Amino acid sequence: MTTFLVPLIIIGGLTSTGVYLLLERNLTRMLLGLLLIGNAVNLLILTVGGRSGNPPIRGRTSNGATTDADPLAQGMILTAIVISMGLAAFVLALAYRSYRLTTVEEVGNDPEDTRVSQQAGSQEEEVIPLPDPNRDTDAPDELDALPGFEGSK
User: According to the UniProt record, where is the region Disordered (predicted)?
Assistant: First the structure.
């Protein structure tokens, strides 16, 4: 099997550009990054699908090809296109809603996440107690039963 280098370079370029755009704080750039990664995956599936050939229909030929084309790759690409368009519509709706609420397209830091990360950095490490090897694990604990429930006797 021969592998062509140009599609692999294009796939790498689309993927790296898509990841770069996904790491931005701008919602439109995030959406474009998702679309670029989706297109890179579609091109990867097409490249892995192999050489073109006859249509996968009995009795049809195309330019004298001796092998049949793989219909699985084509079906997977069509499915991936539908999924990426649905995801793009969802992200576009989120971006529109966010812009209508805040009139800013940049995603800011969440104050609660900032507070938790500052709090986690300032706390000392908690010591997790080791389980007692002499404890009977078959006996019911306080938390195993509902409060006020005696059970059937």
Answer: 106-153
**C-alpha pair distances (Å), 131 with each of 99, 141, 142, 144:** 51, 14, 16, 17
Query: What are the sequence ranges of the domains in the chain?
Result: 5-52+70-104
18 burial (CB, 10 Å; 0-12 / 13-18 / 19+) is: buried
CA separation for the pair 79, 84 (Å, rounded): 9
Q: The tokens of 75 are what?
A: 């079906």
Record: fold of 5-52+70-104: Helix Hairpins (1.10.287)
Dist CA 87 CA 17 (whole Å): 18
Per-residue pLDDT tens digits of the chain, which is 153 residues long? 567 889 899 999 999 999 999 998 888 899 999 999 999 999 999 888 877 777 777 777 777 767 777 788 888 999 999 999 999 999 999 888 888 888 888 887 888 888 888 887 666 666 677 777 777 666 666 555 555 555 544
pTM score: 0.65
